[in-house]
Amino acid sequence: MKKALLITFLITICSQVNFAQGGVTVVTVKNNADAPIINKNIYGHFAEHLGRSIYGGFFVGDTSKIPNTKGVRNDIIKALKELKIPNLRWPGGCFADTYHWKDGIGPQPERPTIVNKWWGGTTEDNSFGTHDFLNMCELLGAEPYLSGNVGSGTVQELADWVQYTNFSGKSPMSDLRKKNGRKEPWKVKFWGIGNEAWGCGGNMTAEYYANEYRKYATFMSDWENTGGITRIASGSNSADYNWTEVLMKNIPINMLGGLGVHHYAVIDWGKKGDGVNFTEDGYFHTMQSALKMEELVTKHSAIMDKYDPEKKVAMIVDEWGAWYEVEQGTNPGFLYQQNTMRDAVLAGATLNIFNNHADRVRMANLAQCVNVLQAVILTDKAKMITTPTYHVMKLYSVHQDAKLLPISFQSPLYTFNGETLPAISASASKDKNGAVHISLVNVDAKNKNKIEIDVNDLGVKNFTGTIITSAKLQDYNSFDTPNKIVPTVFKGFENKKGKLEITIPPFSVVVLEGK
Ligand code: AHR
């Protein structure tokens, strides 16, 4: 018994020890022919009919003085194109399971109104509908990801939506589409079958939803038998592994293109804390919740591997990001929050997790794109700013469709009040032109960290670096100081005969490029 206790003690102590040599973390990055491609869709976004996401965010209407293309703000189109936004999920979220797509087509003055039950009880006039969204995706060069209504809709309604958007031949729905001004179908690839079926999508059990899913998936043909649609099941709430198990067990693999997972970084659902006025305690516990993503992806993957060892089904983390109390004085149902260096660190570390699990994680959607939760864009009437999270996603866009370079290291620890987190997060890839990108995050709020990377085998010689950091963790871009946090040249490294010696400041995100 005593021996067993001693062994447990030693394992615990060893797992807490920083194995870095002389305070330097040795990171190994390898070329590996078998490594997966990092699917660009990991860098996806989410736009729900919620608060000022669509109305007052993306969409101002074509009579607005704010420069727009068919009602969509030109400044947002430009910023998202620069971000290389690969896909956009719409119209929810919880809203999706109350949304009847036929309310949002045809002449705008004739569209019926509905009340947005989930988000602030506002009256939705349906002026932004299917055509508006899908045409906007074309402008953005982004794949649309439509979230279908299972909670309060019907199989026929969802099957009709697919026919309306995707069928090029003659049919009732394609005729209706043509009558509404769109001849060619949009060919929407990604289809969600409900959202959060365990909660706002209908409070279903996993077993019940699995059956519902099978029924919906059966009738959601792409109507041309090209196999062109990816059906995505509503996935688990964070660590609800039973949900994943039941769905993988009960849904045939050939009916399942993707399985979702939702996880928000929240300190405490009862006391979420302010987005800007937070202490190190608030920072540490937000990061603790965010970094749980590593465990979630690993454990959900292990369950999926059991039923799908060939990894045919994609894991789709179709809602992730930080969730704080709404900004004071704003509508509690609108989920508007500011975005600080904390959010930049969180985004960098989460995206590293997705990159490193690219064999299974093939899409993710940050919640949400404009004016809601961990937004990349904030607007105030005619003004628009990009957030620190925007800059991280733009910097990391170099990983889109690049080949993962597996990375390994023993992270030093970031200690706060006796609790610990890994201080360093990293991922690396090689793009189709042979350029290597290594993204590094120092999660530690107080201490810089030293890292050493041997790059001799990577086939590149000259490195440059970019950093996102600021004087304070609480710093953010405001409408008065929109460029307080922007990427700058990173000089904190030396290339000593193929060994990069890097000193990364506290709470900062760095991307190194080797050519
Ligand atoms: O992103 C906000 C909400 O969070 C979504 O509507 C819902 O799916 C989740 O609970």
Number of domains: 1
Helical content stands at 25-40%
Count the helices. How many?
Answer: 10
Order of strands, main sheet, comes to 2-5-8-9-10-11-12-13
- Using only CA atoms, what is the Rg? 23 Å
Low-confidence stretches: 1-21
Hetero groups bound?
alpha-L-arabinofuranose
Largest sheet: 8 strands, parallel, barrel
| Mass-distribution shape | globular
Distance between the termini: 56 Å
Q: What proportion strand?
A: 15-25%
User: In total, how many beta strands?
Assistant: 27
CATH class: Alpha Beta
CATH fold label:
TIM Barrel
Rounded average pLDDT: 94
Name of the CATH homologous superfamily: Glycosidases
Commentary on this structure:
By secondary structure, the protein is an alpha/beta fold. The chain has one domain (40-404): TIM Barrel, CATH 3.20.20.80. It has helices at 2-16, 74-82, 130-140, 155-166, 172-179, 206-219, 241-250, 280-307, 341-356, 388-396; strands at 24-29, 44-46, 68-69, 72-73, 87-90, 114-115, 123-124, 143-148, 190-193, 230-237, 258-265, 314-322, 361-366, 377-380, 383-386, 403-404, 407-408, 413-416, 419-422, 424-430, 436-442, 449-454, 463-468, 488-489, 493-496, 499-504, 508-514. The strands form 7 sheets. An 8-stranded parallel beta barrel has the order 2-5-8-9-10-11-12-13, surrounded by 5 helices. Alpha-L-arabinofuranose binds at residues 48, 92-94, 195-196, 319, 367-368, 373. Residues 1-20 form the signal peptide. Keywords: Carbohydrate metabolism, Glycosidase, Hydrolase, Signal.
